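Internal ticket - ligand job 217, protoporphyrin IX containing FE:
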Amino acid sequence: MQRVYIYKGFERFWHWLQASLIMFLSITGFEVHGSYTIFGFEKAVEYHRVASWMLIGLIFLAIFWHLTTGEWKQYIPTTKKLKEQIMYYMSGIFKGEPHPTEKTGLSKLNPLQRLVYLGFKLLLVPITIISGILYMLYKTFDQNNIIVIEDYPLEAIAFWHTLGAILLMIFLVIHVYMTTTGKTPTSNIQAMITGWEEIDEEHQEHNDENEKKSEKK
Ligand code: HEM
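stdout (structure tokens):
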């Protein structure tokens, strides 16, 4: 076994802050929705707005980091071993079969993760954030008549925003379950805290070689 540095400092900071903000936004958001009372409506609205600006700022930082470090390439979708990965989660995992793919510093996401995280970044988060911004600016647009958005009913914006929020909550539950399916139930979570993970040496060298080859192509 070899200790490999998988998640860099910024990545870990971004991951945990994004997770905390999304959880806080769902707690305050569903209070605004009227599902329960924790902070009181006025405070929930205020906290939701502050946290949403923090999330927007964090996402801009993360985009900048992914582009400047080239880490965005980790999310390029691939069908190689995708079927094996799906079959593993559906059956192999329950029979104690080995993981079909190994994590390495150069390729930290398996083919299923690449697809799911890309969908999360390109669909789910944008739907929730864009509808959230429209929700926030709705009255301003309405009063000033700058943009003809008043024709678009607020209920429709709220619908997309709530749908995005519910899907994000579903994502979160599945995501947390998936994190427990590593070498040990806590190895993936530990890696996202410390950055380091114990990885099979043989696989590590083999996979990194393959990654370098495909990068050269
Ligand atoms: C940057 C992202 C976001 C922005 C700009 C945003 C903005 C808003 C705004 C303006 C409202 C109306 C209440 C208010 O005036 O504060 C709202 C409601 C809500 N938000 Fe967000 N939000 C964001 C992210 C999220 C996330 C990540 C979740 C949950 C995962 C969420 C869940 C909700 C829910 C459930 C409501 C109530 C919808 C309703 O019933 O009308 N929001 N959001």
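Auto-summary: Residues 111-144 form the longest helix (34 residues). The chain has one domain: 2-216.
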